[in-house]
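Researcher: I need the complex structure. Ligand is adenosine-5'-triphosphate. Inputs:
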Amino acid sequence: MPSALSRFTVTDGRHFRLRRMDPRGGAHLRLKKEDAADALAKTVGRIADLQEQLYAHHRWGVLLIFQAMDAAGKDSAIKHVLSGVNPQGCQVSSFKVPSAEELDHDFLWRTTARLPERGRIGVFNRSYYEEVLVVRVHPELLQRQGLPAEVMTPRLWEERYEDIAGFERHLARSGFVIRKFFLNVSEEEQRERFLARLDTPDKRWKFSPGDIKERARWADYMAAYEEMIRHTSAPHAPWIVVPADRKWLAHHVVSTAVVEALESIDFRGPASPGPTRRELALARQALTAPAKKRR
Ligand code: ATP
Ligand code: MG
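Model: Output:
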């Protein structure tokens, strides 16, 4: 069945153009705002069921990566979409400015340590993709990474794309289903959300003065996102460019993509070995045998 999300899904980025993707797109999904909460509740229930199967089957794992400009709604998408999932089956990791220890390693090191186990859903709130986004927009960050001069060549960005693509291919070959979400918010919508953060005491904590500086580099960020998607999209690790100006629609797209990702796994195959018949029989015997007299 062709996916309703195919318009947002990039499996081959060679001809990808970000400006063709509308942050207010998604009309073809025919979802009305007033129906969105019910639709999401159903999808979230389905994710919870599939996640239990993933856990029981214990062969595959799932990695969901979220990247976006500030205030695009990463946190809220993660919160809503995974709200029904058993917390034990899911790990969310956020990646901020790297520490000195992290900078002393290769750029995949800190994320590798947080990869999901088989049977689980791992969520990266930001990821190694920051290495071709914020670091590309701010070359001074690259200077601080302590790399040897020999590797600081004009091919560095190309090489990072290659390494990321190779890493994701390796993960896919090891039994991990990958979906990468770029929450595509418009510059105007971000402006409104920032103003709402300033105006609403409950939201103020989310605002950091640095956000305005990053916003000033909007065009550079969009160029970096486009290049990233062009170079790192693959059938086994697609980018889903989520129209993010309307949160309810963004949540619908992300949750549907997660369902599709989980449904792509064949749980009929042999599951991880559970207890043997003999072990079950012994357990039954132990549980049904007459209790020993207490001394
Ligand atoms: P968010 O903005 O996603 O809600 P936050 O505001 O809680 O998160 P911040 O304190 O802004 O978190 O931390 C995220 C910051 O860390 C971002 O500005 C991001 O670009 C930066 N960052 C993440 N990874 C790297 C990296 N590898 N190198 C440099 N900066 C990075
Ligand atoms: Mg921030």
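Model: Summary of the prediction. The chain has a mean pLDDT of 95.
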